[in-house]
Amino acid sequence: MVERLGPTDPTQVGPYRLDGRLGAGGMGQVFLGTSPAGRKVAVKLIRPELAAAPQFRERFAREVDAARRVGGFHTAQVVDADPEAPSPWLVTEYIPGPTLQQVVTGQGPLAADAVLRLGAGLAEGLAAIHRCGLVHRDLKPGNVILADDGPRIIDFGVAHAADAGPMTRAGEIVGTFAYASPEQMGSAPVSPASDVFSLGSVLAFAATGRGPFDSSTVPAIVHRIVSEPPRLTGLVDGDSLHSLITACLHKDPALRPSAADVLRQVSVTGPAAAAVPAVAPVPVPAPAVVPTPPVGRRAVLWGGIAAAATAVAVPAFLLRPDSKAKDSSKGGPAPTSSPARDVTKPVGQLSGHSSVVNCLAFSPDGRTLASGSSDATVRLWNVASGRTVATLKGHNSDVLALVFSPDGSTLYTGSLDRTLRSWDVRTHAQKEVVLSRDGEYEGVTALAISPDGKTLAAGKESGIELVTPATGESTATLEGHTGSLKGLAFSPDGKTLASVAADTRSAVRLWSTGTGRLVKTFSVDGEDNYGGVMFSPDGKVLAAVGNGIRLWDLDTGRLTSTLTDRHDHLSSAAYRPGKAVIAGAGANPVEDAEGTLGKSVSLWDASTGRVIGTLTGVAPDSHGAVLRISVLAFSPDGTRLAAALGSIGSVDSIQLWAFP
User: Fold this and answer.
1) Is 407 a catalytic site residue?
2) Which of 176, 260, 170 is nearest to 211 (CA)?
3) CA pair distance 96, 41, nearest whole angstrom
4) Quick check: helix, strand or coil at residue 246?
5) Residue 591 and residue 599: Cα distance in Å, rounded?
6) H and E: helices and strands count for the chain
7) Domain assignment of residue 256, yes or no
8) How far apart are CA 434 and CA 474, in angstroms?
């Protein structure tokens, strides 16, 4: 519930206008705000009486650092922060959805299969937190937002580095008592295993409607957590859910599974996992087309501040197709998830550019998708919500290439206007024009950055320039191609750069990034229209996209196979990270009887060369024109595939598929 600002409340924090009061937590107040670009955000402002205390400033700074470091689809994104302000503040994305506390309180316990799906999402989020060397320390039902596309773990206010010293004095308990671990009750070290214990308690609450150690007094809760077995009344003893929760709630941290172990177990035993083919996308709701709930039905990032709703709609990802959950606000059944759908269809469409989309790239954490268009703009999209985060304007012509720095802080963009520009991903401000040589420097048609971020390769219409991003200095010019550059890729070790161009002589080349010398050339008779180049994740195979996908063994230099399908030409392809799968799509399709081939993506098993699946896009308004997918990009974790679908001269729709 959003309340009006009080007479003493600020109306502005940094560049953010405050529109209402959302609540208060232990460290400060939370407001509904609006960014300069007009999007809704949650603004957390530390209490004035605490800002003067060094220990609280230190804690707030740690909160900001923790939230910025954590990635993944099941945690929340920090938009902006100023820990050094007179009253420190933090701004986060504003996530639609009730808390788990609200859903269970309003609708009752969840079905076992829904709890397992919830457990998979929370375990994935915790695994991302733990990979950063952090412990959340306060996982509870109020700190879990149930968005339509899955759960989000929120409130890093008490997150703590796993290898840091004690955050509190012995005996002081951080977090909510009923969901804390035994080690949080004393002076024992708190590790990621503590979060797993809390996860078990949260899943027990979701399945039974009460915490496994609930009692009427704090001393009684502490005694039960430390000395008594969990109370799991309502669960079937010995089934997969009961066994999972029991394992998480072991008193000895060393005997609990890790978050990654929980995720693997749920992926194997969960009902959804068994029903989905290994290469098929998971049928989740489309984020771009889910109606935005009214403000009163939203919950913000920071747990414990949203008033409990009297009637809360259960998010679609928790419902089975035959679910009949009641919506007491309407006196009838609540909307359920869609009937079983074709899992080869995209889960969402992103629309906003006013012309053709030429390039796509995911941020290193997979949470942001960047798109460059012939409308001379770059858009940043929140992958989870499907909303535009920012529109970057500065180029004077078609944006043809873009790439994120390895740390995700900078986005580099190249354009037909002969400039290579860099942008601050956090503030969305243009940093500088890295290269601009009117009359000399040709349009930037391809970009790639080395894994260490120290070398940026910019493809011109007939050559490649190596640039040091930190200084903008050009260190080498690689010449030899006779046509415009179509693709660049660094090897996983960063020692080699691959390039392809629209020429007939040695169209695929390998260069030493250390010396700038040509190392090797690859050619295929009659091939003169390559669309891209890439290395396999292990760096042993080079792939070039054109009349099929050519695969060369880099040790022997031999062409080992050519992947083909019904397309007469492929314009884009991408390796799926962590899998022996290649996705490919064509710009000039041979239309089939249904007219669907142009908007399809083929999936190949790279080890066998066989097509193992086909993904079909949803046509935007193309006025009957022949559709084509022009560019593909996988998220770094391989769970999302993005594709630009449209027709020549039309406005493209960016399609998103989800993978298990």
Assistant:
1) no
2) 176
3) 11
4) helix
5) 10
6) 9, 40
7) yes
8) 10
Q: How is residue 156 written in tokens?
A: 């890093």
pLDDT band at 526 (very low <50, low <70, confident <90, very high): low
Q: Per the structure, how many domains does the chain have?
A: 1
Read off the DSSP letter of residue 253: G
How many C-beta neighbours within 10 Å does residue 132 have? 18
Identity at 644, one-letter amino acid code: A
Q: Is residue 595 part of a domain?
A: no
- Residue 133, phi then psi, degrees to nearest 5: 75, 25
CA–CA gap between residue 401 and residue 421 (Å, rounded): 11
Give me the residue label for tokens 């009838």: 332
Ordered strands of the 463-468 beta sheet: 446-449, 456-459, 463-468, 473-479
Catalogue the E-assigned strands of 234-365.
326-327, 332-333, 348-350, 357-362
Given a cut of 70, is residue 610 above it in pLDDT?
A: yes
- In three-state secondary structure terms, 68 is helix
- Residue tagged 């007179």 (tokens): 86
Give kind and range of the element (H or E) at residue 556: none
**How far is the C-alpha of 601 from the C-alpha of 567, rounded, in Å?**
10
Yes or no: say if 460 and 441 are a contact pair by the CB < 8 Å rule: yes
CB 567 within 8 A of CB 601: no
| pLDDT value at 490 more than 60 | yes
- pLDDT per residue over 211-269, tens digit each? 999 887 788 888 899 999 999 988 888 788 999 999 999 999 999 999 989 988 886 55
Contact 565, 584 (CB under 8 A): yes
Task: Using the structure block, give the residue that is written with the tokens 């695929």.
Answer: 508
Q: Which residue from 620, 639, 615, 632 is spatially nearest to 565, judged by alpha carbons?
A: 615
Distance between CA 143 and CA 153 in Å, rounded? 6
Tell me the residue type at 141.
P
Measured distance CA(418)–CA(287) in Å, rounded: 35
Contact 527, 520 (CB under 8 A): no
E runs forming strands in 159-232: 160-161
Task: Identify whether 268 is part of a domain.
Answer: yes
Q: Looking up tokens 């984020």, which residue turns up?
A: 287
CA distance linking residue 657 with residue 305, whole number of Å: 34
The answer as to whether 312 is a domain residue is yes
**Cβ(356)–Cβ(646) under 8 Å?**
yes
Q: Which range is most confident: 53-57, 335-339, 442-446, 557-561?
A: 557-561
Sheet holding 388-393, edge to edge: 357-362, 368-373, 377-382, 388-393
Q: What is the CATH number of the domain that holds 112?
A: 1.10.510.10
Which of 19, 65, 80, 138 is labelled catalytic? 138
**Cα 1 vs. chain centroid, distance in angstroms?**
28
Q: Which residues have CB under 8 Å from 252's CB, separation 6+?
A: none
Q: Give the SS3 label for residue 197.
A: helix
User: At 488, which helix (H) or strand (E)?
Assistant: strand 485-490
DSSP-derived 3-state class of residue 184? helix
C-alpha–C-alpha distance, residues 10 and 1, integer Å: 19
DSSP, res 308: P
Q: Which residue range(s) make up the domain with 10? A: 1-164+173-343
- Residue 16 DSSP label: E
Least confident stretch, 6-15, 26-35, 306-315, 368-377? 306-315
Is the CB of residue 191 less than 8 Å from the CB of residue 253? Answer: yes
Contacts of 300 (CB under 8 A, 6+ apart): 22, 23, 30, 32, 42, 92, 94, 95, 306
Nearest Cα residue to 367 out of 44, 79, 131: 79
Q: HSE-up of 445 (CA within 13 Å, CB side)?
A: 20
